[in-house]
Design a protein that fits this description.
Structural class: mainly beta
Strand content: 35-45%
Length: 807
Amino acid sequence: MSSYEPVDLSAACNAGVEVLGGEPGDVPLGRVDLRGLPFLIGSEPPSAQRCFLLPSAPASVGIGRLAPRVIVAHRLLEPGAPAGHAVGQTVADYAFHLAGGEVVVAPIRERFEIQVVPPGWGQLPFLAVTDTSDHSMPRLEGKWGNAGARLVEHDMGWPRGYFLWCWENPHPQRLLERIEIIPRGGRFVVAGITTSDVDEHPFVRRPARPVRLLVKDGRSGVLDIEVDRGVATYPQPLPGEDDRAGWGAAEGKAAYTSIAALPSATVAVRQADDELGRVRWGDVERDGRADTGQITLELVEEGRNWVHVSVLDDATGRPVPCRVHFRSAEGIPYQPHGHHNHVTQNLDSWHYDVGGDVRLGQRSYAYIDGTCQGWLPRGDVVVDVARGFEYEPLRQTVRIERGQRELTLRIGRVADLASEGWWSGDSHVHFLSTPGAQLEQRGEDLRVVNLLQTQWGALFTNTEDFSGRPSVIDGGVIDGGGYVTYVGQENRQHALGHMVLWGLKEPVMPWCSDGPDEAELGGALDATLSDWADRTHAQGGTVVAAHFPNPNGEPAVLVATSRADAVEMLTQADDAMLEYYRYLNCGYRLPLVGGTDKMSSAVPVGLYRTYARLDEEFSYEAWCRAVRSGRTFLSGGPLLALSVDGSEPGDTVRLSGPGTVSIQATVRSIFPLRSLEVVRNGEVVARAEAGGGRQAEISEELRIDGHSWIACRAFGVDCHLDEWGRRVAAHTSPVYLACGGDWTMTDPEGLRYIRTLVEGAREYVRHTAVRRSDRLTTHHHGEADHLAWLERPFAEALRALDERGQR
């Protein structure tokens, strides 16, 4: 039976670990496996006294067996010259004495067959390998100081004690009688020798191959792979049946890994504390698969090509920014070079937003400018391409033939809202850089990104991105009009509320206040949302109540005092819509915007977005003006249109008295739809079932008996596969109907509710929030009585509510 067999060197050993100098550390001694190969270092049981051969004169080691290959574990004790300048200098000759008298001499040269341990950076030997294998980092744990490095996922094997060098016998059928070790200069030790008659080179020479893993009983959970003579990547889940072209996939039952190993290696598969089976890697390579009874391992690639890909706009024939995903017929991802098959190992990635990649469920996508390159497997390759809500997602199976180096794909628009006057934007994005935001927004056909500075305790984000002006990329022939990233702020308090500030020319500080988890530990209430809003308006900026209505304290003040220019929804949840309707019924004109609050690579920019209708040339300032005027709808996919007597969202229809209005509402979508609804004063007054189709419309004559507002909304069949599981949904801002005079509405119960919020938030300011001593503090507002300054906007809101209630 073929094997690796250690040679007992104990009789020849003449030095202990002290020759290593300093602290020897955890050098392997005794019977050990180095790179999965067996060695005997010194004696067994291990001893630190006489464990190495340190030759000062020729020394002979008896072998007496067939040895097609000999693996030597050795190390140089000091370099022959500083800074590696003795490279190539002969340290020793190893003379291999074969039966019949022939002697084969192998020179042992510094930085070729042998090297010091540890070597200098970049000074690994050319013909020897370290005594440990490359490896994956601990998958689910680690030290805080390794948080950044952990994203690398894998690390190279660094020598614990030795370098391994392999001699290949030119006459493998002749007995190797002995090895004579002849020193030629420089001190070195031989720690162990192992012979091999296995039909393989003892060091892995072939790259990793993808392997599909299927647990027989259908159990889900993280799998672990161990390879004794090779390496394996983290097993990752493959998508299941819920698989949406261009928009993600849910986790399935199968998984995959990539393995590079010797044919003699053993591959063990575990799940938690259970071993599901072990197989010989050579058997998997020979048969293409192996079955342990509990798990099946299957090789799923026969070859690959480096392919240059172009994605063209079907109308113009030019490369179009988009996001792409490539996979084999078995589901194994092959993403473009420079992008991730699995963003942050499919784990949470808050604040580690990897610009250029996004993950939806168990599928990662790469943002590209219309071109990319990288490895694709030969045979059938499934391609997904997506670009926002106005392009039909592409799913196409292409054939990659031997020698193929080019691939062209095409995607086409199903809508062009910019040509109709509607320009899209994300109200609320974190952690991307400005160039990263520009890459991703072009890939999502998203015209505006509001990238926000903010603070989480000791973490301040995007400070280097603020410029006080828009960053614009020309849309070119395909899109025209350009793409804008503007760095603003999200100012935040954990109890009073959050707000988004657009169009700032200078920062509005402090960014956050009143302690964690927004401001610093032990912080005090130094600012109000109303003060931030006033300073934003003084610069000509726009104030949006973030992720309306929560945190639900001071947003009521912002609305009651007309400091909120718009309110933002991130999910179109039922409670958010009810809150929004309550304010509208109280007579507040509140434009509606959509945003993602993107804080990880598990959310694409613009998954919830704002469409604003412009009646002027597109610019960031024009887009903000359109938002403030209420000419908006938010979309998580569906594209809405609403007309009331020819007027659109943000407009006021004036009636001399009670009467009838004509309503036209339509929706179109790249996602299957459930329904389209018309809402008047918070109540659904018309509904069209879509039944999973992509379009619906409502045409109604509606009786109006008093001041009203009308909006429309649409719901999809599914939820998105982002980390929040948001609805596929959309909602317009209202059209206001003034019936016999200027538009006004008053809901006494709603006003009582809003007043309660204002009073509660004021009580928090008075009795709960931490305040700084006026005697020991010069406040940023310059007033001596900080509490009076804090309370002022709440008093303004209560007066405004009283006046509204008297109308």
